[in-house]
Automatic annotation (TrEMBL), chains A, B:
Residues 2-116 form the Response regulatory domain. Residues 124-219 bind DNA. Keywords: DNA-binding, Phosphoprotein. One of its GO terms (molecular function) is transcription cis-regulatory region binding. Gene3D superfamilies: 3.40.50.2300, 6.10.250.690, Winged helix-like DNA-binding domain superfamily/Winged helix DNA-binding domain. InterPro entries: CheY-like_superfamily, OmpR/PhoB-type_DNA-bd, Sig_transdc_resp-reg_receiver, WalR-like, WH-like_DNA-bd_sf. One of its GO terms (cellular component) is cytosol. It comes from the Bacteria. CDD domains: trans_reg_C (cd00383). The modification 4-aspartylphosphate is found at residue 51. This is DNA-binding response regulator. It comes from Dactylosporangium siamense. Residues 124-219 form the OmpR/PhoB-type domain. One of its GO terms (biological process) is regulation of DNA-templated transcription.
DNA sequence: GGCGCGGTGACACCACGGTGACAGCCGCTG
DNA sequence: CAGCGGCTGTCACCGTGGTGTCACCGCGCC
């Protein structure tokens, strides 16, 4: 599997590159957008791991080019901006997946593998779980074909749970991802939001509570 | 559509800028090459209308830079030199089109529109959504066969929403695309324009509000 | 039993988006 | 030139639903 890593923070770039090679991938690393485009013109990559904030040619622009060129490469966008809003922006550009920094290396590997497995091009970047679907770009979630009327926070939480794909997500992590800024550490918003989400989903135990660890999307 | 006009003859520059705005484009005007490069570093333009003979940084140089930066902007070169040879020179630098002075304003508009359409040339040149149609080139929108009398801004907003194809478009994004860059960040124009648009469309919820995320054209 | 964690329902706040009125600007026309 | 009308943008105001807090409850565990 061929992977191109585009990341201007050199230390991170090299670390990621080395790690992925250890996972058996053929990895090229470049440090800016212009170089990335050069490589893309010459080589065929399965997955492009793309930092959004790049000097010179911005990551968004690189992404747009890849999509415009109808390349078969999947794009995994990395970004420091983890708010739901910015996430939507990224996917709107045509990225196939999205990973907010800081990320767990294992998760990066898993997502790259998942992307590489995807049959072909413009797969809708939509989460599916049983009869539940969530489209981050369009901000639409459905259950059994019926549209769910979710508020932004509820949507964000559900998105995180689906992205975690069965792994439990702690309240702190949810706070950090969905509520961005420094939040009151004693807040109880998360549990309240989870409760409301459960209510709207109908089946309360679709979201499973893992004691001391958080919540995970359940195998029904 | 965002356009940057680079022309050192101030009267001409202002006239062209004004005219293009009347055509519904978001236009920035600068009078020399250095300013042009500054703007290009910050903003994303669909088309750059570039006079070839500029004081300071020459138009050719600006063009070369744009191409070198692999910007997505298309370059329309304006010049007093109309011989075939020089024309070839211009295109050789990477310009996408070429218009000898003096030119017909209508033709300028037509060429800009053509350039803006080019990257996604395979795309249909007219948007359709349910009983709504919008033709960007001819600036005509209809609903259920009846022509809609839209102002330029309203038209621009609707065009953006249709181009986003169901994805929500934030107020900031609309501001950037439909209005020019010097936009007051606290302005409320967008919501007012949306309101007027909704009024003219008849069905207010054809444009759906997605809280915190923007507006989307919406079935569903 | 007491403690800690998570679920529950109620409540209050306020930020966001909708609304209507108005004013400046500009081009057109007489 | 004055007068007019259409397009834009601003502002003040309102209603509402999204959001966060709190008190309380229920349950399982040491």
């Amino acid at each position: 599997m061929r992977v191109l890593v585009v990341e201007d923070f050199e230390v991170l770039a090299r670390t990621v590159g080395k790690g992925l090679r250890r996972e058996g991938m053929a990895v090229d690393v470049v440090l800016d957008g212009a170089d990335a485009l050069d490589r893309l013109a010459v080589n065929r990559y399965d997955v492009v791991v793309l930092d959004r904030d790049l000097p010179g040619v911005h990551g968004d622009e690189v992404c747009r080019r890849i999509v415009a060129a109808r390349s078969s490469s999947r794009v995994l966008m990395l970004t420091a901006a983890s708010t739901v809003k910015q996430r939507v922006d990224g996917l709107g550009l045509g990225a196939d997946d999205y990973l907010p920094k800081p990320f767990d290396f294992e998760e990066l590997v898993a997502r790259i593998r998942a992307l590489a497995r995807r049959p072909s091009s413009a797969l809708p970047s939509v989460y599916e779980h049983a009869d539940l679907t969530l489209d981050p770009a369009r901000r639409v979630a459905t259950r059994g074909g019926r549209r769910l009327e979710l508020t932004p926070k509820e949507f964000g939480v559900l998105e995180c749970l689906l992205a975690a794909d069965g792994r439990p997500v702690s309240a702190e992590e949810l706070l950090e991802r969905v509520w961005d800024e420094a939040a009151d550490p004693f807040t109880t918003v998360v549990k309240t939001t989870i409760r409301r989400l459960r209510g709207k989903l109908g089946t309360p135990d679709l979201i499973h509570t893992v004691r001391e660890a958080g919540y995970r999307i359940g195998a029904l």
